[in-house]
């Protein structure tokens, strides 16, 4: 064996054998301040020292312990980049085997994570936690269905946002643009225009690009959805799909059961169609309460449809368990009520396999499946699709009457992207980046917000549904946060029944982790001041 190769259990090399280091601090993250991690300067407690580890343990364990202490002491923070293998070997004067074993030890202890083609990054430590969000009272009878009146509240928020154009947006629903494959999509668009120069001038098929619809149908099989290309209609994002579904199965004045809290965009759609909303409580962990919906169906025979976001619900971030999904589909099928599934976040879940859609349990066309690529691939493309179940022909007619065909260029670009492994690689990177951002923001929330704050960290996506202390009004908090240069979404817009006044929705779209940390700390201080002056 080459004598210059150190195995993990070999003793420390002599200082004379250590390659010289120029003394320049190394930045571990584009967002983090420079941190000096030279082996002859970092002691086991994470502070500068002139000594190297000298206990009797294998060298790789001693080095792993140094980094563990640096993480515990906050020298290295969640999201910080670890040194590359080459840099680690040079700084500590060790072999590749020792460096590899050091990182394996840290990875096994859930202190760092590997990101494909990017290196190793510090994971969030779950040391500071807050109580879980309050579960809904399932014994309470549902209130009366109400005509929705949310437009004025949303308009007021948008107007205030416009007065603060430079505010940091922690209230949005899409990730930062640099988390999406901008260059790859641009190149695909140029190739598409060279191959088909009339894409921008020729009218496309009414249902959408045939190649894209065929690819979508094949991909749907992977998650248990049995449809063909003719069962897919392309739409202008997910919101048009939901609007088409509602128009297909309701008339003005009808009642629609929705989750509570509920995405305000759905409430706006109901209002624009002259529909009543019946709010059904939803759990921050399991989503829509099936028992509460079953009771509502008995006491409100005028319910004409149910709308639900089963995977990473907006704003809760909850994922409905498979057993609940099966029961929900069965309940609606027995009642003969269409179940409209809005499913744009499913592929952002932190699971080995994405959670299944409700449509996978649909045996008779009860489920109208609506989704889009807005959150997962390209918000600017606004490409969505719908399968209308047994209402599919009517939805196709309504689509033609409402907006005709979608523009084709985005569809052709998307078809090329989905046909290769590029989309799956992008999704892995996106989920990983969002997880790092969520973990770091969750730690900052837990460390910064006052006693009485509660929230349940989601298992994917980018939302935090935060329950503030009872004395804090989300409307006043929203206004005060804007004065601080930070956008949040007040809980009042996620209900048509005046609920959730002490809740806010935060999101983690920013890739500047230090900036987001500081914003969360300021929000925490703001909440503490509001509690103190209540």
TrEMBL record:
Lineage top rank: taxon: Bacteria
CDD domains: AAT_like (cd00609), WHTH_GntR (cd07377)
Pfam families, per the entry: Aminotran_1_2 (PF00155), GntR (PF00392)
Keywords: Aminotransferase, Coiled coil, DNA-binding, Pyridoxal phosphate, Transcription, Transcription regulation, Transferase
Ranges for region Disordered: 1-32
Domain called HTH gntR-type: residue spans: 57-125
EC number in record: 2.6.1.9
Coiled-coil annotated spans: 420-447
GO molecular-function terms, A-Z: histidinol-phosphate transaminase activity
InterPro entries listed in its UniProt record: Aminotransferase_I/II_large, HTH_trans_reg/aminotransferase, PyrdxlP-dep_Trfase, PyrdxlP-dep_Trfase_major, PyrdxlP-dep_Trfase_small, Tscrpt_reg_HTH_GntR, WH-like_DNA-bd_sf, WH_DNA-bd_sf
UniProt keyword NAD present: no
Family note: In the C-terminal section; belongs to the class-I pyridoxal-phosphate-dependent aminotransferase family.
Name under which the protein is recorded: Histidinol-phosphate aminotransferase
Organism, as annotated: Paraburkholderia haematera
Organism lineage: Bacteria, Pseudomonadati, Pseudomonadota, Betaproteobacteria, Burkholderiales
């Amino acid at each position: 064996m080459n004598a210059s190769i150190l195995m993990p259990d070999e003793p420390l090399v002599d200082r004379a054998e250590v390659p010289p280091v120029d003394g320049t601090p190394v930045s571990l993250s584009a967002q983090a301040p420079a941190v000096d991690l030279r082996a002859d300067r970092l002691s086991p407690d994470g502070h500068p020292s002139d000594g190297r580890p000298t206990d009797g343990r294998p060298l790789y364990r001693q080095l792993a312990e140094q980094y563990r202490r640096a993480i515990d002491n906050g020298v290295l923070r969640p999201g910080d980049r670890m040194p590359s293998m080459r840099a680690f070997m040079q700084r500590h004067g060790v072999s590749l085997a020792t460096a590899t074993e050091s990182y394996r030890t840290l990875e096994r202890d859930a202190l760092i994570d590997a990101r494909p083609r990017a290196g190793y990054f510090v994971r969030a430590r779950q040391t500071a936690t807050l109580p879980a969000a309050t579960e809904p009272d399932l014994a309470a009878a549902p209130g009366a269905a109400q005509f929705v009146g949310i437009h004025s509240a949303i308009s007021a928020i948008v107007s205030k946002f416009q007065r603060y154009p430079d505010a940091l947006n922690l209230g949005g629903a899409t990730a930062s643009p640099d988390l999406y494959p901008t260059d790859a999509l641009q190149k695909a668009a140029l190739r598409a225009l060279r191959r088909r120069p009339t894409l921008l001038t020729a009218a496309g098929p009414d249902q959408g690009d045939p190649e894209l619809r065929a690819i979508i149908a094949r991909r749907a099989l992977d998650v248990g959805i049995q449809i063909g290309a003719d069962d897919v209609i392309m739409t202008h994002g997910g919101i048009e799909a939901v609007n088409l579904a509602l128009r297909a199965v309701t008339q003005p004045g009808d009642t629609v059961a929705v989750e509570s809290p509920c995405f305000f965009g759905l409430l706006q759609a109901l209002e624009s169609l002259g529909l009543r909303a019946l709010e059904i409580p939803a759990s921050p962990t399991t989503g829509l309460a099936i028992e509460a919906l079953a009771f509502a169906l008995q006491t409100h025979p005028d319910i004409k449809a149910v709308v639900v976001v089963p995977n990473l619900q907006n704003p809760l971030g909850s994922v409905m368990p498979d057993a609940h999904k099966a029961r929900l589909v069965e309940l609606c099928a027995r009642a003969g009520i269409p179940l409209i599934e809005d499913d744009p976040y499913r592929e952002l879940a932190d699971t080995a396999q994405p959670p299944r859609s409700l449509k996978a349990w649909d045996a008779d066309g009860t489920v109208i499946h609506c989704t889009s690529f807005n959150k997962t691939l390209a918000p600017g493309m606004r490409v969505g699709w719908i399968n209308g179940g047994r209402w599919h022909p009517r939805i196709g007619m309504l689509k033609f009457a409402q907006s005709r065909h979608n523009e084709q260029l985005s569809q052709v670009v998307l078809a090329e992207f989905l046909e290769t492994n590029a989309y799956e690689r992008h999704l892995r990177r996106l989920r990983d980046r969002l997880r790092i951002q969520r973990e770091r923001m969750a730690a900052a929330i837990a460390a910064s917000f006052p006693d009485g704050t509660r929230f349940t960290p989601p298992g994917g996506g980018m939302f935090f549904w935060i329950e503030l202390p009872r004395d804090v009004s989300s409307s006043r908090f929203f206004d005060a946060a804007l004065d601080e240069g930070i956008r949040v979404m007040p809980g009042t817009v996620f209900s048509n029944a005046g609920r959730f006044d002490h809740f806010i929705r935060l999101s983690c779209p920013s890739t500047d982790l230090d900036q987001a940390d500081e914003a969360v700390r300021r929000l925490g201080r703001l909440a503490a001041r509001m509690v103190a002056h209540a």
